[in-house]
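Technical annex B. To support the medicinal chemistry partners, we prepared a structural model of the target in complex with tryptophan, based solely on the information shown next.
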Amino acid sequence: MTRETWTTRVGFILAAVGSAVGLGNIWQFPFKTAEFGGATFLVVYLLAALCIGLPAILAEFVVGRRANLNVVGAFRGLGHPRWRFVGVVGLFTGFWILSYYSVVGGWVLRYVAGSATGAYFADPAAYFGAISAGLDALALHAVFMVLVAGIVALGVEDGIEKATRLMVPSIVVILLALALWAVTIPGAGAGYTYYLSPNFGELASDIDEIVPFAVGQAFFSLSLGMGAMITYSSYLDGDDSLAADGATIVLFNTFVGVLAGFVVFPLLFAQGIAPDESGPGAVFVSLATAFSELPAGRVLGVAFFLVVLIAALSSAISLLEVVVSYVIDNYDVGRAPTAAGLGAAIFLLGVPSALDVAWLGWFDALTYNLYLPLSVLLVLVFVGWVLGADAVDEVRKGTGGAETPAVAWLWTVRVVVLLAVFGTLALGLQTLFLEGGIVPPIDFDPDVLIRYES
Ligand code: TRP
């Protein structure tokens, strides 16, 4: 059977943007920005995305397009079968992330409906408490996984490419419209000030906290560290410039994250809501509060949560595709049953997160502090020090053959990016061990099943 490919270069770019733009940009980014002091965090994040994210995404593209195989097979295909374990780490990470990502996706589904009916208008905080854990959350987690598996089952061209071609432009259009509307609400000005004036004194004092988080956020947001970009670029067959595609994707992804801030902050400040209450419920509770108090809140709420939903779906399909691609490349099974079977397995892994938000937080903390930096680090060592000249060769394609930029990229990966990621991993591990985050929150309380159902 011949391997699938994208029909066009734009199709690939949109799918990659669809993978990158997701809950990371709209749900995590504005609130991490708030937690770490607004504009100050924004500056560090922008630097991290550009100086670390871009070289790293290029490294994944090199592996994917050169091998034209799934994450695990790619390392064998490039003649380094011993490095297959890196792909296995990636597969595992994808499984792990999607299990709780889908639970949050389920919340978003719920909020689209809740905005339409005004269900959360009376008491946004209590609403979040009631729907975020328990059987309700479990049911919506299931619905979200069914949607994701359905799109992946349709395949690269008919499923992923067609879906993202529609999804990505709608995300941008709706978010842009909301950002423009936000300008008109009275009292929004304080939000812009907060978002756009960095405090460098603060940066100097909190740098050890801000930097690892900004780097982790850049990885998560760019879908690095679990082979999503390796898998997507493995469906490329042309010789276009990977650097140009990578830059487009990084810029686009950053643009959407920043744009989300232009919706969230004016909205919060105009309603006098403190932006730095952190935690997974923050975006839901505070935006729901804003929508419940604004004129036309239902329409705006539906528009906003619909964007979040589309963004979450187009990212989740990339997470599932990585694992599906591995299975169908290696075993004699069809795409649809594979997507269904793996979707079911991931659903099961997400059950604890759906029943208890503490579990979701634990899954998320391990992702940020351990799996992502570890797996990005391994890919970078492989591309920088093992592939070396072959990687340079791949990067030079489509750029008129210029050698200097490609070699400069290689050395950036070998030294600067590698050290930065190593530092991130070290600080992440420190956080995990110091805060006891490595231990799962097993004091699980079966009452949640009953509590939220009454
Ligand atoms: N980038 C997506 C977001 O911002 C999430 C995501 C998709 C992801 N694929 C990934 C994160 C792979 C890490 C690794 O929501």
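Notes passed to the chemistry partners:
Confidence is low (pLDDT under 50) at residues 448-454.
DSSP finds 20 helices and no strands in the chain.
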